[in-house]
Amino acid sequence: MDALYNLLDGSIDDNTKFEDECRAIFGAQSYVLFTLDKLVQKFVKHLHAVASDETDTKLLQLHAYENYRKLWEDDLI
Predict the structure, then answer these.
(1) Which of 20, 26, 42, 69 is in Cβ range 3.0-4.6 Å of 30 for a Cys bridge?
(2) What is the pTM of this model?
């Protein structure tokens, strides 16, 4: 559990240490845990890129507006 907390708070910079500790605890099936960790890291990286890009932000706002408008039109019918 300490390894997970250290990974989440940034104390572990190298994921290999986390992977090694997962293998020591869970054995060969630990690949799911550290693969999931890598997936979450990539997702957060892409989410940050979308959130910080002005064009992407405008597109997300437009999407939200169109969804709201569609819901409003459906309520009128």
Answers:
(1) 26
(2) 0.51
